[in-house]
Amino acid sequence: xxxxxxxxxxxxxxxxxxxxxxxxxxxxxxxxxxxxxxxxxxxxxxxxxxxxxxxxxxxxxxxxxxxxxxxxxxxxxxxxxxxxxxxxxxxxxxxxxxxxxxxxxxxxxxxxxxxxxxxxxxxxxxxxxxxxxxxxxxxxxxxxxxxxxxxxxxxxx
Length: 157
Known about the structure:
- The chain has 157 residues and is mainly α.
- It has helices spanning 40-54, 58-75, 83-92, 98-115, 124-154; strands at 4-8, 15-19, 24-26.
- Helix 2 runs parallel beside helix 5.
- The termini are far apart.
């Protein structure tokens, strides 16, 4: 027996029609909102990666996530040309930790596979992980420092 119900989308806060336990949702759910503390150009590319993922365009999602990481490196002062070198440059400068360098490296690997012919295919799980890592990379570089700065300012320190 099918059961239909109306819910409210967590992203856009508009009504959604759902069958059973979420088998069919109309309209398709929108990606989660990007934090407004992320710079606008990076947020636009991250949003595009999220839209690609939500429409099962996993290769495009991974390529956009890789682009986001590279743009973030450039925004944080990386001068080298290749992403592998830019990530290493930020790690050596202390802008990112070794763990975060590893996140960026994983995004780079999956994104490279997505962007270059003859490489491994990008599966849903690969794209989802790549997208999560890229978004967390932006949170570490932009969102968390902005929150800490605002709290320090509020405390007058």
